[in-house]
# Entry
Amino acid sequence: MNIKIFDTDVTELFDRGNIVFRIDSISLETMEKTPVGMVVTKEDYEKKLRMHLYNPILFIVDLPTKLSYIYDCLNRSFLQKRSKVFLFYWRELGKREWAKWFAVFPYNDSVYGETCKVFNVDI
# Structure
Protein backbone atom coordinates (compact mmCIF):
# COMPACT_ATOMS: atom_id res chain seq x y z
CA MET A 1 0.00 0.00 0.00
CA ASN A 2 1.31 3.44 -0.79
CA ILE A 3 -0.35 5.10 2.21
CA LYS A 4 1.12 4.55 5.67
CA ILE A 5 -1.16 5.61 8.50
CA PHE A 6 0.54 6.68 11.74
CA ASP A 7 -2.59 7.45 13.79
CA THR A 8 -5.82 5.59 13.02
CA ASP A 9 -7.93 7.63 15.48
CA VAL A 10 -7.56 10.88 13.54
CA THR A 11 -10.23 10.05 10.95
CA GLU A 12 -12.93 10.05 13.61
CA LEU A 13 -11.69 13.36 15.04
CA PHE A 14 -11.69 14.87 11.54
CA ASP A 15 -15.24 13.61 10.87
CA ARG A 16 -16.37 15.45 14.02
CA GLY A 17 -14.67 18.66 12.87
CA ASN A 18 -12.32 18.77 15.86
CA ILE A 19 -9.06 19.00 13.92
CA VAL A 20 -7.35 20.63 10.96
CA PHE A 21 -4.64 19.19 8.73
CA ARG A 22 -1.77 20.35 6.58
CA ILE A 23 0.39 18.66 3.96
CA ASP A 24 4.15 18.78 3.44
CA SER A 25 5.99 17.17 0.54
CA ILE A 26 9.47 15.68 0.62
CA SER A 27 11.40 15.51 -2.65
CA LEU A 28 13.06 12.13 -3.09
CA GLU A 29 15.82 13.78 -5.10
CA THR A 30 16.81 16.51 -2.62
CA MET A 31 15.03 15.36 0.58
CA GLU A 32 13.78 18.96 0.87
CA LYS A 33 10.52 19.41 2.80
CA THR A 34 8.01 21.90 1.39
CA PRO A 35 4.54 22.94 2.63
CA VAL A 36 1.71 22.12 0.23
CA GLY A 37 -1.08 24.68 0.48
CA MET A 38 -2.62 25.97 3.69
CA VAL A 39 -4.14 24.48 6.82
CA VAL A 40 -7.37 22.68 5.89
CA THR A 41 -10.58 22.45 7.94
CA LYS A 42 -13.33 19.86 7.54
CA GLU A 43 -15.46 22.53 5.84
CA ASP A 44 -12.67 23.36 3.36
CA TYR A 45 -12.33 19.68 2.48
CA GLU A 46 -16.10 19.17 2.07
CA LYS A 47 -16.34 22.21 -0.21
CA LYS A 48 -13.45 20.93 -2.35
CA LEU A 49 -15.05 17.47 -2.54
CA ARG A 50 -18.45 18.90 -3.59
CA MET A 51 -16.82 21.04 -6.29
CA HIS A 52 -14.76 18.14 -7.68
CA LEU A 53 -15.92 16.37 -10.83
CA TYR A 54 -18.12 13.54 -9.52
CA ASN A 55 -16.30 10.24 -9.19
CA PRO A 56 -18.24 7.53 -7.30
CA ILE A 57 -15.01 5.83 -6.19
CA LEU A 58 -14.26 8.89 -4.01
CA PHE A 59 -17.28 8.16 -1.84
CA ILE A 60 -16.36 4.57 -1.00
CA VAL A 61 -12.63 4.79 -0.27
CA ASP A 62 -11.22 5.57 3.16
CA LEU A 63 -10.54 9.16 4.19
CA PRO A 64 -6.72 9.10 3.77
CA THR A 65 -7.09 7.77 0.20
CA LYS A 66 -9.79 10.34 -0.55
CA LEU A 67 -7.66 13.19 0.81
CA SER A 68 -4.63 11.93 -1.11
CA TYR A 69 -6.61 12.05 -4.34
CA ILE A 70 -8.41 15.35 -3.73
CA TYR A 71 -5.17 17.12 -2.72
CA ASP A 72 -3.16 15.75 -5.69
CA CYS A 73 -0.81 13.40 -3.87
CA LEU A 74 -1.38 10.32 -6.03
CA ASN A 75 0.01 9.54 -9.47
CA ARG A 76 -1.18 11.92 -12.18
CA SER A 77 -0.89 9.50 -15.07
CA PHE A 78 -0.59 5.76 -15.55
CA LEU A 79 2.86 4.24 -14.94
CA GLN A 80 4.37 7.60 -13.93
CA LYS A 81 4.94 7.59 -10.19
CA ARG A 82 5.48 10.77 -8.23
CA SER A 83 8.94 11.83 -7.03
CA LYS A 84 7.70 13.03 -3.64
CA VAL A 85 6.43 11.71 -0.35
CA PHE A 86 3.44 13.62 0.99
CA LEU A 87 3.08 13.91 4.77
CA PHE A 88 -0.28 14.77 6.31
CA TYR A 89 -0.10 16.37 9.76
CA TRP A 90 -3.00 17.10 12.09
CA ARG A 91 -3.66 19.21 15.15
CA GLU A 92 -6.61 19.92 17.39
CA LEU A 93 -8.40 23.22 16.94
CA GLY A 94 -6.93 25.87 19.24
CA LYS A 95 -3.66 24.00 19.76
CA ARG A 96 -0.24 24.47 18.14
CA GLU A 97 1.32 21.00 18.19
CA TRP A 98 1.25 19.07 14.92
CA ALA A 99 1.40 15.26 14.76
CA LYS A 100 1.85 12.89 11.81
CA TRP A 101 -1.41 11.47 10.48
CA PHE A 102 -0.36 9.56 7.36
CA ALA A 103 2.16 9.57 4.50
CA VAL A 104 1.64 8.96 0.78
CA PHE A 105 4.63 7.31 -0.87
CA PRO A 106 5.43 7.06 -4.58
CA TYR A 107 4.07 3.82 -5.96
CA ASN A 108 4.00 1.70 -9.09
CA ASP A 109 0.61 1.41 -10.82
CA SER A 110 -0.87 -2.01 -11.45
CA VAL A 111 -3.77 -2.88 -13.72
CA TYR A 112 -4.61 -5.88 -11.54
CA GLY A 113 -4.53 -4.23 -8.13
CA GLU A 114 -1.35 -5.95 -7.00
CA THR A 115 0.39 -4.61 -3.93
CA CYS A 116 2.29 -1.44 -4.70
CA LYS A 117 5.99 -1.18 -3.94
CA VAL A 118 6.59 1.42 -1.23
CA PHE A 119 9.90 3.24 -1.22
CA ASN A 120 11.84 3.03 2.00
CA VAL A 121 12.16 6.67 3.06
CA ASP A 122 12.79 7.67 6.66
CA ILE A 123 10.19 10.26 7.60
About this structure: Residues 3-104 form one domain. The mean pLDDT is 89. Helices lie at 10-15, 42-51, 63-70.
